[in-house]
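*** Query protein ***
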Amino acid sequence: METASNIQKLHRPTKPLAGRTGGTAKPAKKRTAGAHRNGFLNHVFQPFWGVAFPDCQSAEQEFFVSAGNLCALYKWTMPDVSGLSFPDNIREAYYGLIAQQTRAFDLEVRISQDENHTCCLTTGKTYYTGNHLYYIPVRSVWNMRGNKAEQSCYNLFVSVFAYFHQVAGIPFFTEPGTIESTYDTIKNWLDEEGDNEDEVFPNRQKQELDLLKKAGDILLPEIKRPFCLRHLESCLKKYQKFKQSDTDLTDIVAEIIKLVKDYPKRGIQESMYYEKEKDEGDTLYWEQYISFYWSGYDCLNETLYDMINDEFQQMGYQEEPTALQWFDRPQEKAEHIFDFEPRLLHLVNRISELLNDYDYEEPNE
């Protein structure tokens, strides 16, 4: 696992923030006090009470159709709310439905909406991301860039990075977000201290910050060149002809190629459903714990992780992949499938471990 020793510095089960785009389904929610591993599954759920709908009759009909389909699948009893008007009938029906859940029922029943639904019941299941920071180090690839003997390896990594960034949606460390702002804060602190010839380590940190900025400005345009699966496959074939090719790397890339073929356009954000504009500042978003960064073995690493740890300890909720089953039509069985997400995160782990092996500088050396 990438930066496993650093991950253990985190105080509690949390898992770096870029310009985010959440999923399209929008479960309404009301948050409770206190820290939870995943607020999406632990909030007090009070959707839509007092919310104005452009078509109340349509919303009411959609809700009760989905409620009937939900009851049919789980053999629940439809609550009798015939004496109530909208939206009280929806509220009481919702509470009557979730009251029938048993301890063995490991899903959350919620009212959701997206571009095709206004007031539809869904069941949601969350994929637990394992208390990890899924950070992809870049410095070792930058060091390959000027080495002619490593060009085939460099080109392969750039193509892999293009997939992770463009298709999977993983933010780059020089783009606006937690990683970029943390490096920027470190730079501001160092600038405030001024130059001191006797301060060897701070001066070294400044040099590293200059290097990562230069590297990021050069690498990002290369990574943003349109991703092409055929190009990735071609880079892999060229690399395999290299006598010193790393079988671990070729195996990982082969798995990435298979993932791309199975899910050509799928991004990690598609199963994320928090709404940032309604956040109260206590949510740990997926972009904060899934990201590119500079290095796990440089002179900035300890400071970076201390700052991230301090920030993440303030978060009461965590955004993790969620699979929704919509009940706008009859459902034959419960179906909440996670395949893309665990495969992608596993590959991020493996590629990060490998890149750490290629990064030879020891911490605080």
The radius of gyration is 24 Å. The first strand starts at residue 108 and ends at 112. The chain is about 45% helix and 10% strand.
